[in-house]
Design goal:
- It is built from seven helices and eleven strands.
- The chain has about 250 residues and is of the alpha+beta class.
- The strands form two sheets. The protein has an eight-stranded mixed beta barrel with strand order 3-4-5-6-10-11-8-7.
Length: about 250
């Protein structure tokens, strides 16, 4: 009798183990499918948005945001970083959680939106404007900020554009940093108002890559405007990648 019970117990254990493997395999397949669906949704959403990307129709008339503002009146800008897939509208919520998992259409989305810190001036008039975006694989959202951590890419790719309702601005990237999520210089916009030179010194001393000549030019400017683009990174707990750019009126450089 005891042998029968032992064989029965072994059979039940083997069956349970096999069932566990089947369930784990099924879940892994579902997770992979779900992950692919998320990235496909990001690509489809961006493709749709690019159809209504604001364009310069007449230089003296500035940028037309008419179509995209009909979709969402919290759109503040459109950012493009050359030779990356970063080409997105920028929104700004009443707090910094609104667009973490909400797309520009106001719908739930795990990829969220590129958004401007709620403490910043919506017209990008502050000394420092801070953007957030999820780090997505396949170059989604702000995933391509990783490219600026590569020395060759950083050296050869410094340009971009920031389109605002009143006009077009050029972006000139001058620094790439790897910081923690609590970094006061990167994540406290008010610090740039209080101590611009101190923040520039911090960037000079802590950047992974730096265009020193442009940084020194910025230090001599009367009222420079800096844009910070930030996303998660995997080097350590709470790691963040930050690319900093000078905002120039189009044609000034």
């Amino acid at each position: 009798m005891s042998r029968f019970l032992l064989r029965l117990a072994n059979g039940i254990f083997t069956l349970a183990l096999a069932l566990g493997f089947v369930i784990a395999g099924a879940y892994a397949c579902y997770a992979l499918w779900d992950n692919n669906q998320i990235y496909a949704a990001v690509e489809n959403a961006q493709a749709d948005l690019l159809k209504i990307k604001p364009v310069v129709e007449e230089a003296e008339e500035g940028i037309s945001f008419e179509e995209i503002l009909k979709i969402n009146d919290q759109v503040r800008a459109w950012i493009t970083l050359d030779n990356t897939k970063i080409d997105h509208p920028v929104v700004q919520g009443t707090d910094n959680f609104t667009y973490v998992n909400t797309d520009v259409y106001g719908e739930f989305s795990l990829s969220g939106s590129i958004f401007l810190d709620c403490r910043c001036d919506g017209s990008f008039g502050d000394p420092y404007s801070l953007l957030y975006g999820h780090h997505m694989e396949n170059s989604g959202m702000f995933g391509d900020l990783d490219l600026y951590k590569e020395a060759d890419f950083f050296r050869e790719n410094t340009t971009g554009a920031l389109l605002l309702p009143e006009g077009a601005y050029e972006l000139e990237i001058f620094a790439c940093l790897l910081v923690t999520a609590s970094d006061d210089c990167v994540f406290e916009p008010e610090s740039w108002k209080a101590d611009l030179q101190g923040c520039l010194s911090y960037v000079r001393e802590n950047s992974m890559h730096l265009h020193s000549q442009l940084l020194e030019e910025i230090a001599q400017m009367e009222n420079p405007r800096i844009l910070g683009c930030t996303t998660c990174s995997s080097e350590f707990t709470d790691a963040r990648t930050a690319a900093l750019a000078l905002i120039r009126p189009a044609g000034e450089n």
